[in-house]
Amino acid sequence: MKRLGIIGGLGPMASAYFLRLIVEMTDAKIDQEHIEIMLYSKPQIPDRTKFILGISNESPVQQLIETGKKILAQGAEVIAIPCITAHFFQKQLEEELKCPIINAIEETAKYLKSENISRAGIMATEGTIKSRLFQDTFADYGIDCIVPDSAGQTDIMHIIYDNVKAGLPVDMELFKQASKGLYDDGAEVILLGCTELSMIKRDYTIGKGFLDVMEVLARQAVMLCGTLKPGYHHLITE
């Protein structure tokens, strides 16, 4: 079993839920069969979306690297980052940390390919959408990305920042409108491509046809560092 390191706090509730997913997905009958995990939660890391969009000139990279080094010093052998937008910096982090970092976006593409999905709707931060993290990776797997229109993206950002990150109830009407827009444009599956959106799947009934990218990340972490519990091979909601 490899030791898993988690760069957390991006945001804090998403990191806590990610840890819960790993525990739930691990096939363990006693405490000692669970994965050894080093979780460093650092909410003070600068906002990834604001930096990518040029709204802020405060880069999160150095603090991400410093956090990763502290985790590695504790013995971590594989790193997971439960923040999809932070994957924009993955190559820089891998070069500095010299450690495997699970690529949630690529693992999602592989999963969709295995499910014969060719058109995926993307619900994510504006930073993730504009940096084409999903679009460019999915193109290598022959998967088309459907992104929200301007109004839909504004609604999604409101849900992420003004609802979930603020610790307030989610405006489910906005969520349903944004989802409908993606389905109307031809999406076969909608990706919850921000770890804050994972909280919606956890707390609300969202219906069929959704894939939580954080669940894909957690599943891959378990498969690399432990044993996956039966029942987690199919992740798209039904």
The count of helical stretches stands at 11
Give unreliable regions as ranges.
none
Shape: globular
Q: Over all CA atoms, what is the radius of gyration?
A: 17 Å
**Major sheet attributes:** 4 strands, parallel
Mean residue pLDDT: 96
Distance between the termini: 32 Å
What's the helical proportion of residues?
A: 40-55%
Secondary structure category: alpha/beta
User: What is the succession of H and E elements?
Assistant: EHEHHEHHEHHEHHEHEH
**Fraction of residues in β-strands:** 5-15%
- DSSP strand tally: 7
Strand order of the largest sheet: 5-4-6-7
List its salient traits.
238 residues; alpha/beta; four-stranded parallel sheet; three-stranded parallel sheet; 11 helices; 47% helix
Protein model, in words:
Helix 1 (12-25) crosses helix 10 and helix 8 (150-164) runs antiparallel to helix 9 (172-184). Helix content is 47%, strand content 12%. The protein has a four-stranded parallel β-sheet with strand order 5-4-6-7. The longest helix has 15 residues, at 150-164. The protein is an alpha/beta fold and 238 residues long.
Structure summary:
Helices cover 47% and strands 12% of the residues.
SSE order and pairing:
Elements: E1 4-8, H1 12-25, E2 37-41, H2 48-52, H3 61-73, E3 78-80, H4 90-97, H5 104-114, E4 119-123, H6 126-130, H7 133-139, E5 144-146, H8 150-164, H9 172-184, E6 189-192, H10 195-203, E7 210-212, H11 213-225
Parallel strand pairs: 1-2, 1-3, 4-5, 4-6, 6-7
Helix pairs in contact: 1-10, 1-11, 3-4, 5-11, 8-9
